Amino acid sequence: MSGSLPFYQKHHRHYDRSYRGRETASTISQYQQSASSYSAHRSSSARGAITSASVDELGLSPQPKRTKPSYLAVDKENQIIGYVVPIFRGSQEFASGLSDTEEARAKETAGYLARRDLFTSGMEMERVEHKSHRAVMRESAERISLTKRIHENEEYHKLLNKDSLMHPPEFVIKPRSHTVWEKQCVRLHCTITGWPEPRVVWYKNNVSIDPMAQPGKYKIISSYNVHSLEINRCDFDDTAQYRVSAMNSNGELSAYASVVVKRFKGEVDEFLPAPRLLPCLEYGVTFETHIVEKFDVSFGREGETLSLGCSVIIYPSLQRYQPEIEWYRDDKLLEPSKWVQMHWSGDRATLTLNHLNKEDEGLYTLRVITKSGYETHSAYVFVRDTDAEVAGAPGAPLDVFSQEANKDYVIVTWKQPAVDGGSAILGYFVDRCEVGTTHWIQCNDTPIKFARFPVTGLIEGRSYIFRVRAVNKCGMSHPSRVSEPVAAMDPADRARKGASAPWTGQIIVTEEEPVEGVVPGKPRDLMVTEATKNYVVLSWQPPGEKGHEGVMYYVEKCVSGTDSWQRVNTDIPVKSPRFALFDLSEGKSYCFRVRCCNSAGVGEPSEPTEATVVGDKLDIPSAPGRVVPTRNTDTSVVVSWEASREAKELVGYYIECSLAGKNAWEPCNNKPVKGTRFICHGLTTGEKYVFRVRAVNAAGISDFSQESEAIEVKAAIASPAPPFGISVLECVRDSMVLAWKQPTFVGGADITGYFVDYREVIGGVPGKWHEANIKSVSERAYRVSELKENMLYQFQVRAANMAGVGIPSRPSEVFKCEEWTIAVPGPPHDLQLQEVRKDSLLLLWKPPVYQGRDQVNGYYVDIKEAEAPFECWRGVNEKATSKTYMKIKDLKEGVEYVFRVRAQNKAGVGKASEPTEPVLAETKPGTAELVVNVDDDGVISLNFECANLTADSKFIWSKNYEEIKDDKRLTMETKGNKSKAIFNTPSEDDLGIYSCLVTHTDGASASYTLTEEGLKELLKTSHDHKFPIIPLKSELAVELLEKGRVRFWLQAEKMSANGKAEYVFNDNIISQGDKYKMNFDRNTGIIEMFMESLGKEDEGTFTFQLQDGKATNQSSLVLIGDVFKQLQKESEFQRKEWHRKQGPHFVEYLGYEVTPQCTVRLKCKVGNMKKESVALWYKDGREIKANEKLDFSEGVLTLEIAQISKKDAGVYEVVVKDDRGQDKSTLNLTDQGFRDLMNQVFSVIANSSTPLKIQSTEEGVRLYTFVSYYNDELLVTWHHKDAAIAFTDRIKSGVVGEQLWLQISEPTEKDKGKYAIEFFDGKGGLKRTVELSGQAYDDAYAEFQRLKAAAIAERNRARVAGGLPDVVTIQEGKALNLTCNISGDPVPEVTWLKNDRELVSDDHFILKFASGKFASFTITTVNTNDSGKYSILVKNKYGTESGDFTVSVFIPDEELGKKK
After folding, report:
1. Which of 34, 295, 351, 901 has minimal Cβ neighbours within 10 Å of its Cβ?
2. pLDDT by residue (tens digit) across 1246-1259?
3. Which of these ranges, 531-545, 891-905, 1374-1388, has the smallest mean pLDDT?
4. Under a CB-based contact definition with an 8 Å cutoff, are residues 215 and 367 in contact?
5. 1042 pLDDT band (50/70/90 cuts)?
6. Sheet strands (E) in 588-722
């Protein structure tokens, strides 16, 4: 039962009786019984003695006596023709006469008075019997007056200064956590303030608590801001976190408290409170209730009658007091009906189930309620299907229910049966029957698979019942149990009228006469509430404007995307605001709209719905997850499973069982269970069963889950033995970390947790035990907090499993709570021994809790024989290990050993751990090792077999001794006593140590180390097993033959005579034909296929598939994209080449080479030439003449280009031809081609360069090199100290002929260093270097200075610049004037000589030297004596120079005579 009731139940006139608190209802009923004896002997006159005046005196308002309303409709002859349903227009409060608040207070006051009157002493009982009726009425009046005053007072305070008083809820006192023993009671209290008065709700694990859902279990009390939750007779399921939430209009606040319920499995000592019954101190009586002769788990069959009964003993026995007896099925209170009958004889409660149906299956609980509490007993009742009328027919459906009933329409739902008869259920038929008749009408013509069906065509006002039948290919099932009657009427009318009577007479609905006809408005809120492939259900709200008369509706549809509306109900409009449409095309999309109509006409259509696709929207749920069976009793097993991950509107689950290996499945339940845990009863002790589960919803039943592991049916598990070996791992000022060892006996089930208790020890006297942890801890270590510093404490630990909490351990030693300050780490803990053999074992441990000053960086393991003294401890490892496990070897067989572990950090080695229990070095019989295996399918797995396996044993696989919880890389499979770990995708990530431990054994375990070499070997073996192949010498390859033919081939190692080969192209088998030629040589294993050429259609994948017995192999070659195009191009090229080579052709195409003289030689090689063959050269399409004759013996053609330059760039072509054909070769020497050529030329030039040399000049120092040929395109770079030189007026470079030079004028110290000239050839280039430093620089500089001085002297010495003739012939008597230029610095001295004798300037010889530049020689009057050799001599400090000329004087007459 849910925590809140629907509104129509809260205000229903029967709500006071059916839904009031069970405790209050019981008290009132007993109060009425006790007063009946008094009222029975009163006369009728006494009962009517109260007059109107007396009523007025009491303050009561006289109630007018109402006539009983009649709902019968009669005709003129007073003949009954049906029911009349009046239009109900009253308020909600009219139904009960009180508001919610007043009604609650009235009930609470009445209950209090009833309890007070019932449980008073005997004298009080007598006084009650002798009270006058007037006094009783006075008390009633006082209660009503008090209620009214309280209500008025509350309303007054609500309005008083409302704004300033309002504040959110606040917890003055929060609830406190409790730990109690089983069957004790606990009460949680809190105090809450707030205005308006907060609404308080209690939650258990975030689920609201409804006291009426479990009467007697919870009691919620709220009084004067104090709120309490009382939990009666706590059990394990009451262990939870409880939350109290307070909420008003200003906010919400919550507080939390935990309740832990413990089960005690031992004798009670003086510190343990004994279980007690809750006394009713306010009543003075405590009842003890005992249920004996209890009913057990029962099995029945459909159609049978079953009775359940218990004897009840109540002490003390009061003759006038009877307990309240309640029966529940699946926690729902049962009410007497034609199917259920209850009987209470005073000491025995009996429940009789008439004509069993599967709806009667469930957990039945008898609850005996007294004022002191209640006692319950529960057992399950199973109902099996009756035998089918037709063999193989399914079981009957169940839980047929009618919902959303309206005037002419109702939806029928049901649950699918667990038994389908061995074949799938095809669908269901729904039948209806009018109440009062026995005529059943089938509602659907074809079976429907959906467990929900709208039944239409009902007659308004009539009541119906429904049933459902299932059908499969074998036949029809029995019909289900009929549903409860439902009336076809408007829901509002039904809410006003109450439960519909099972009568089929006509109901006349009376309405007020309409004043004036009004066309109704548009219906509102039209929506599709349900859509399946069989039908679509529409619902809407009536229009706001509909006049004073009722409305009916027309439904219209249209296909989405069109505007063609079609009326669905053309004949009769529907009266209900819901409608089901059938005969729609599955998969099509429709829109719908509705019109209202009345006597005034048809209104406007509503807004159309969104497009709705006809089809099932609810999917069948996915299969449930892992199914886990657990032992329960010797005839039952607890089955739990993982819920379906994708399950919408889940109805429940069906569980089936089968004897292991039989595959004969039987249902465990015939009524779906909603949880994920179920107890399967009726099993055979000692047999092994497997289980599977299916999920159910309205869409159908899911697939079965995977089968569970087989489980043997035997008695339940027991609680574990006490732990032992309690030690301290860490201690601080207010807490201590404890460790302990696992119990020697775990009770047949895994330990789920531990509980720790502690107590103070003062003066050697132990105190009271206190709980350290409310929630169990799974580790064997726990920190106990909130201790007192420097106090002494003792501890005890209890283990818990599924059976409960075991007895506590013996108290530990006394430990002092003081903070550890040592620098070294604390002791390791939880030492475990595995893989015990005669000479080795494995020791595992956990790191210390106390790390010390630094982190732990290693561990030491100590060993000694068990019987040896303490001094015999010796170390196993000399070097600390960083791992938390160690394989200890070299043990002596038959000797018992103990071990301990010490941790170390930088500060040193810490305290040793507690020693292990003695272990005997022996290999127990039946001990198996972990075996790695590769099966025929190539699956690699680790296998472990345990001979002494128990029913509760589990195989736990670990990697590097850490349990494997992520199954992505490994898949674990366990069958019987064997378990395997399968590698999903073996790789280097799987390297490590694998171990398997079997629980609930004597330590069965083993390990296997997977190394890199081992993995490689396993992968090779796996591949060989998985794919038995024919070994190949070579994979499928392709090659081109002469004429461009294509050959595909491969070679196998060995093939028998039965070997076969198939040729596949693009997944299509190809065969021998014009296009393909195949050859298979079984002796050599060569398989080949030939194709003359490749076309576009041949692009794809070629595969050769081989088979030789079981062995197979295949090899594929993918020829697509660029690969195929390249092969096709090459094939076409080869074909053309073959045709080309039939005439003159080029053996080597046109290329070039550069000679050492930098001459470019174009050359090619030709073949298949004859005398008539010719060769023609072209440049840029123009023929050029080659100065050479064809040499057909060598077949080499050349064309030389000397001193190549840019004008030689172009496209060169050579053509060879004769009568057989022609061939040509082209060489592109433009752009990049020409640049590549020039780079090669530059490379030759660079390589011809001479080493750099140093030469001194009068200007400075010159570095130079010579090349064999210089080209203007050559790029060179000069470097100084590895940096490019920036040229200036002082440093210059240049080329003279084939000399490349660098001139450094006036060198300085900065010019010293390494110089280099770099030639650029487009690749790495070439450098020539010289070192201008040290002696080389000194010599060069000295020579420069010398040459510079010589140049200066040569430049400044005295010179005769010119102006004097060699010979002067002059006539006697003439004047001779000669002038010449003189240079020199300083200005030279000038001397004139005649016949080597110095002349002196006089009147005859005038000698002048003007401006230091011009010297003149003048003979004023020439005579014959002036003939002779003349000289001018100039001289300064840098040198002397002379100029000579001859003067010849002639007489004119003589000269004339000579000529004659």
Report:
1. 34
2. 888 899 999 888 88
3. 531-545
4. yes
5. confident
6. 589-598, 601-602, 612-613, 627-633, 636-641, 650-659, 666-667, 677-680, 688-697, 700-701, 711-712
Query: Torsion-angle region of residue 1375: left (phi > 0), alpha (psi -120 to 50) or beta?
Result: beta
pLDDT band at residue 1455 using 50, 70 and 90 as cut-offs: low
Cα dihedral 492, 493, 496, 498 sign? negative
The span from the CA of 71 to the CA of 496, in Å, is: 13
- Residues 6 or more apart in contact with residue 37 via CB below 8 angstroms: 129
Token readout for 404 is 């959303």
Report residue 1010: phi and psi, to 5°: -95, 110
What is the separation, in whole angstroms, between the first and last Cα of the chain?
173
Beta-ladder partners of 888: 841
Amino acid at residue number 197: E
Run of H or E including 1023: helix 1012-1026
CB 897 within 8 A of CB 891: yes
Q: What is the phi/psi pair of residue 94, to 5°?
A: -65, -30
Look up residue 294 and give its two tokens: 């209890």
Number of neighbours of residue 1106 by Cβ within 10 angstroms? 22
Residue 540 amino acid letter: W
Contacts of 357 (CB under 8 A, 6+ apart): 302, 339, 383, 396, 398, 480, 481
Three-state secondary-structure class, residue 1304? strand
DSSP secondary structure string, 272-336?
A: SPPP----BTTTTB--EEEEES----EEEETT--EEEEEEEEEES--TT---EEEEEETTEE---
- Which alpha helices (H) appear in 180-272, and where do they start and end? none
pLDDT of residue 842: 92
Q: Record the tokens describing residue 1218, joined without a space.
A: 């004769």
pTM flag (> 0.85): no
In terms of DSSP bridges, do strands 1359-1362 and 1291-1296 run parallel, antiparallel, or are they unpaired? unpaired
pLDDT tens across 444-497, in order?
Answer: 988 988 888 888 888 888 889 999 999 999 999 999 999 999 888 876 666 555
Return the structure tokens found at 922.
């022996």
Distance CA 224, CA 239 (A): 29
Report how far residue 169's alpha carbon sits from residue 249's, in angstroms, rounded to the nearest whole number: 9
What is the spatial distance between Cα 836 and Cα 920, in angstroms, rounded to a whole number? 8
Mean pLDDT value across residues 272-300:
66
Cα 1330 from Cα 1337, distance rounded (Å): 11
> Which tokens is 748 given?
């047949």
Q: Distance between CA atoms of 230 and 224, rounded to whole angstroms?
A: 17
pLDDT of residue 1424: 86
Answer yes or no: is pLDDT of 268 > 50.
no
The pLDDT score that the predictor gives to residue 34 is 39
Q: What are phi and psi of 878, to 5 degrees?
A: -80, -35
Cis ω for the linkage preceding 198 (within 30 of 0): no
Secondary structure (3-state) at 112 = helix
Angle at 316 between CA 314 and CA 318, to 5 degrees: 90
CB 1432 within 8 A of CB 1417: yes
DSSP 1257-1283: -SSEEEEEEE-S---TT--EEEEETTE
Mean pLDDT score, 245-265: 84
So what's the pLDDT on residue 203? 92
User: Which is nearest to 837 in space by CA: 963, 1005, 958?
Assistant: 1005
Is 1061 in contact with 1076 (CB distance < 8 Å)? no
Cis peptide before 827 (omega within 30 of 0): no
DSSP H or E segment with residue 1339 = helix 1334-1356
Q: How far is CA 482 from CA 445, 709, 762, 1367, in A?
A: 20, 40, 73, 164
